[in-house]
Amino acid sequence: MNQNVSLSCHSDSGSPPVRYTLFKNGQKVSALSRTDLTPVVFNLTINSASDVGEYKCKAANEISNGEKYSRSLNFTLKEPVSKPVLSSPNSQAKKGQNVTLSCLSEKGSLPITYTFFKDRHTIQPPVKMQKREAAVISILIKSSNDFGMYKCKAENCFRNKTKYSDGFNFTLAEERSNSQPLIISLGLILLLLAIGFALAIPFFIIPSYKAKKFTPTRSSTGHTSTEKVEESEDYITYAEIGKFTSLSI
């Protein structure tokens, strides 16, 4: 990156003056003229990947249809790897579970070699990627020793510019108790029973209570005492009204 390069272009034959034009991916970049058959030199600066492409040179003079193109020239961009990103679809894990880790460096000349670590110890052989794709490994969480600090390393042809990712930790997922669903079910059953009992009070218990109180009494002569029944009925009615009124207050 930020590298200066020079491209030389010349024609061995033809009547001068000769005009040379440099193209990149079919687009004109620069043009120079020579009054003789000496080569011209185009100076370029490669700042980014967009400066890399197919370069060609065209030579033309005043003769009609007297222009020729050179063969194409392609630059191979070489740049160090960027800081890789270590990630996983699961941030929590439990014992006996398989988890995956992905490591990707978004910049850098291919191929890129990735190495995975746990607590600074290599856990698998290095993985070389020929494409801009993440290296993925699978890990079986056997015990609490498999929970720790994971990292990955990315490197390419620039051996002295190796990059490491940030650390990644799996957290232990809480396992639900088997008795919890049973407790919830029992609670729902008790709640339904309480609601059913509350609904039964005005329809069954209170009418039964009134029926017993309203039963007419017979005198020793065998006649029913209507006055006593009415008095008793009124007493019960007012007593109940007073009772429920006091509860509502």
UniProtKB/TrEMBL annotation:
What superkingdom heads the lineage?
Eukaryota
According to its UniProt entry, the protein's GO biological process terms are: cell surface receptor signaling pathway; immune response
UniProt GO molecular function: transmembrane signaling receptor activity
Is Cytoplasm tagged as a keyword?
Answer: no
Asked if Phosphoprotein is a keyword of the record, the answer is no
The record, for SUPFAM superfamilies, names: Immunoglobulin
Q: Where are the transmembrane segments?
A: 182-206
A GO CC term assigned to this protein in UniProt = external side of plasma membrane
Q: Which residues form a coiled coil?
A: none
State a single Pfam family of this protein: Ig_C17orf99
Q: Which UniProt keywords apply?
A: Disulfide bond, Glycoprotein, Membrane, Signal, Transmembrane, Transmembrane helix
Give the matching CDD domains: Ig
Domain named Ig-like is located at 1-74, 80-171
InterPro entries documented for this protein? Ig-like_dom (IPR007110), Ig-like_dom_sf (IPR036179), Ig-like_fold (IPR013783), Ig_Fc_receptor (IPR050488), IL-40-like_Ig (IPR040878)
Name used for this protein in its record: Ig-like domain-containing protein
